[in-house]
Amino acid sequence: MFFDMYLPTKIVFRREKEALDILKKERDNFNLSKVAFFVSNSSKKYGYFEKIFKILNPQKYVILDNLPVEPTEKDLEDIFQKLKDENISLIVAIGGGSVLDTAKAIGILLRNPLKDIKKAFIYIDKFKNEAVDMIAVPTTAGSSSEVTPYSVFKVEALKSKSPIVSRKGFYKLALVIPEYTYTMPPKVALYSGIDAFSHLIESYLSLRSFEISEFFSIFGMKIFFENISKTLNNANTLARDNMVKASLYGGISITLAGAGLMHILGHIIGYYKNLPHGHTLALVMPEVIRFYGTSVYNKLKIFEDLLGKRNLNPLEFVNYFSDFLKELFYKDLQVEKVKFSKEDIKLFINSLKGKEKLFSKLPKIPKEEDIIKIYENV
Ligand SMILES: [Fe+2]
User: Fold this and answer.
1) CB of 368 within 8 A of CB of 351?
2) What is the distance between the alpha carbons of residues 266 and 277, in angstroms, rounded to a whole number?
3) Sheet of 90-95: strands edge to edge?
4) Distance from the CA of 371 to the center of ligand 1, in angstroms?
5) Is the predicted pLDDT of residue 1 greater than 90, yes or no?
6) Which residues are registered as beta bridge partners of 39?
7) Distance 278 CA to ligand 1 centre (A)
8) Helix, strand, or coil (residue 61)
9) Distances in whole angstroms, Cα of residue 265 to Cα of each of 159, 187, 259, 288, 325
10) Least CB-packed of 55, 88, 116, 249 within 10 Å?
11) What is the distance in A from the centroid of ligand 1 to the CA of 196?
């Protein structure tokens, strides 16, 4: 019945022309004395960066491009060292999830410098100062970094991908222009879409969920099921527009209710294996649902009508839902199957040691043997 909500990002979800007009008006609200632009190569290639740059037209600026696709805490340290004495007044990030995450973490660290950057990953919500003002222009539809307090890096000390979590590090303005996602290659559209779905379903199943987060989760999941296959076709702009909305809803729902076991297990795979984030989530998702079993039936039963399965008992229905996801991912969407060896799984399990506190808001707490089974059955 009671809840706290903090979603401070101004979200502008508009066609390009309108969004850029709004940016022109917003320009005066930001200090443009020295702007750091974090730019993906494709946003340069397709001219998105140029358009934003022209409107902001800052007095001084630095451009950070050729950013790592899978940034590590070492990359973060290097960029921080480069920028720490530059008196950056505004950060503008244009690109996919990694670019937005890297820029966001730098925005936090510039106002909250740490001697040991690794501490950023355990300082959950411990940063005192507000980040540098930041603007995000996402060019993929899934990470939703533009509206969340999370930024994810490969962290060697934790043998996992791991988020910096700080409510001092929200973007001030998210300029969400669906046209900028039309240039995503189909594989990027697929895996970022699955990332969005994972945010939606994990927050929905989290014990932290409540009516408002569930509203975003349920609407977002509906949009995902209706559009994910069509979004693989670059020409289907309506599907791409819709997936941008699903991604935004996913970002809002994880900001309100958090992610869960799929991200915990997927991040460990992502640390060891060179697989896209959304791919690692697709692998574990059906098996995590199967593990949750009847504990999530009351939530998942909203899909009984959609899947035409009103006649099953709770356990049968949850297993059916898990099989349905497998069929969707592997058959319809052609997600590549990946199998893990015994040695792989040993490494994954070792990574989890000491991270049990991450399980506290899951609908069912896994034991080591449950996790081994999940990894074995992907
Ligand atoms: Fe994610």
Assistant:
1) no
2) 7
3) 10-13, 173-176, 133-138, 90-95, 35-39, 61-64
4) 19
5) no
6) 94
7) 7
8) strand
9) 12, 21, 11, 9, 17
10) 116
11) 7
What CA–CA distances, in Å, run from 277 to 78, 154, 262? 23, 11, 11
Domain ranges across the chain: 10-181, 186-377
Adjacent-strand bridge partners of 11? 174
Please give the distance, rounded to the nearest whole angstrom, from the Cα atom of residue 141 to the centre of ligand 1.
Answer: 11
Q: pLDDT (tens digit, 9 = 90+) per residue, 57-74?
A: 999 999 999 999 999 999
User: If you measure from the C-alpha of residue 164 to the centroid of ligand 1, how many angstroms do you get, rounded to a whole number?
Assistant: 13
Instruction: Give me ligand 1 centre to Cα 58, in Å.
Output: 32
Report the separation in Å between the CA atom of 56 and the middle of ligand 1, taken as the mean of its atom positions. Answer: 30
Contact 320, 307 (CB under 8 A): yes
Cα 143 to middle of ligand 1, angstroms: 5
Rounded to whole angstroms, how far apart are CA atoms 202 and 208? 10
CATH number belonging to domain 10-181: 3.40.50.1970
CATH code of 186-377, in short, is 1.20.1090.10
Cα dihedral: 306, 307, 312, 314 (round 10): -70
pLDDT tens per residue across span 210-267: 999 999 999 999 999 999 999 998 889 999 999 999 999 999 999 999 999 999 999 9
Closest CA to 228 of 323, 324, 151: 324
**Rounded to an integer, what is the distance from CA 29 to the centroid of its chain?**
27
25 C-alpha to ligand 1 centroid (Å): 32
